Predict the structure.
Amino acid sequence: MTAESTFKLTYATMFNPPEELHTRFEDALARVKAKLGQEHGMIIDGKEVFAAKKFEDRNPANTDMVLGIFQQGTAEDAQAALAAARRAFPAWSRMPWQDRVALIRKAADLIDQRIYEIAAVVSLEVGKNRMEALGDVAETADLFRYACDRMEANNGFVVEMGRDPLVGFEARNVSVLRPYGVWLVISPFNFPCALTGGPAAAALVTGNTVVMKPASDTPWSVRLIAECLRDAGLPDGVINYVTGPGSTLGQALIDSPEVDGITFTGSYDVGMHIYRSFAQGRWPRPTILEMGGKNPAIVSRHANLEDAAAGIVRSAFGLQGQKCSACSRIYIEAPVYDQLVNRLVELTNKLSIGDPTERKNFLGPVINRKSYADYQAFCEELSQAGTILTGGKVLTEGEYAKGYFCAPTLVADLPLNHRLWKYEMFLPISTIAKVESLEEAMRLANDVDYGLTAGFYGSEEEAQWFFEHIEAGVVYANRPQGATTGAWPGFQPFGGWKGSGSTGKNAGGVHYLQLYMHEQSRTLIRRL
Ligand code: NDP
């Protein structure tokens, strides 16, 4: 057991952390490192389930380090998890919503209590620096609470409607939002806690039961969130956690008619594949897809260039550019181009890279061997088509020898018709263009299939124009804390337009919970 913290990790303390945060993180890291290499089961119907085949979960900063052994779940495990969720649905959905809220709040409290251990695992498994790892876990607890708050604010989504004037009768009309049934949550590697926990909490609090499947690079972080839900006292089968390859286990889940709704967060290609295969079902089912981004920052000649440089570098290279909201395109008006580009290069060169669990490092490794190889191929292609201003190479000496470390990379002079202006690389690589006007920047910014986040630096009047014209679900102006990244539940609801998302309603916002329920309009007539 650890002593109670004297402060609470919140959005504000994340930007200005007290010293205690660091000592607590380091103590937790030591405890986590003492139990590396253990085997972890799946959780199906409240029981630990083991598969015949296993897979290793390794640290991308040091691939000699086996973090844990996980189960390679099969199609049978997928069916068992869905069946358990189906059996648990009637009792869970009929439970008063206030009781579900109490259980999810309890799970949020458990996340808070375990935050340093979970964050240490996230840092080791994802390669996030310690502040970003803590942020992922703190955000998860906040997403749980936000879902509960919205349920309360809407009084369980039961709304008395008008009484139709029928002579001789009394009519009572009520709109009730009710859960769909078994909800599937498939999550990506980069925010394993928030992007599994957030959708799961929304599904659960509204009365659905859940099967969650994490990315194969990050099974441990998600298992720890599943444990918080289990330990909060959710009945067996209400949450199920299965692990294994997306192409087999994931596909079996997707193909099953036992799934009543899904929240998928991940790449455009897999998301669209799921969208199409869901269309083969016997009836339309809710399909919440949160997909990739190709997020631009536009900088006007009137911008505060210091704020722009700080915000762009933070968003381009936080988590090694592996955020769906990462700033991967930078459009700068000609009069301030040289000055800002020099500053961007200067700040990028100051970023420290190395073991992400160490306090001094801002960048860790990229997630796996494939991303590492992709980075090298993209840099080769970019060096031929444009100018690499800084970075462009992998780091292999000394402390970098055993991990997937890539230098943060800025590229200029890339022809505007080059394919990589539109392709989500998902790596610490951003491309920069000089534009003659804000209209040109806007045309280029919108000329992609994605529409997730976007940033702007300039006058307030220009910022209003930017908000009006940019095609994206989360937009920021004049923000040194991040040009395109750093949304927080309750502050910046998060979701994408166009190829970045399917619902047009953002997570952590006021319209989100409704996506997890269908409406029943109830009319009861009494003769007078
Ligand atoms: P992937 O699309 O590769 O994987 C996401 C999840 O889908 C993983 O759990 C994966 O399992 C699973 N999966 C893969 N194939 C199938 C299949 N055929 N059927 C069912 N499930 C499958 O994404 P990444 O994990 O690489 O994450 C990065 C991507 O996520 C980026 O494009 C990023 O922009 C996007 N993203 C979007 C966010 C948003 O809010 N819009 C937020 C964060 C990330 P396995 O790992 O086993 O292959």
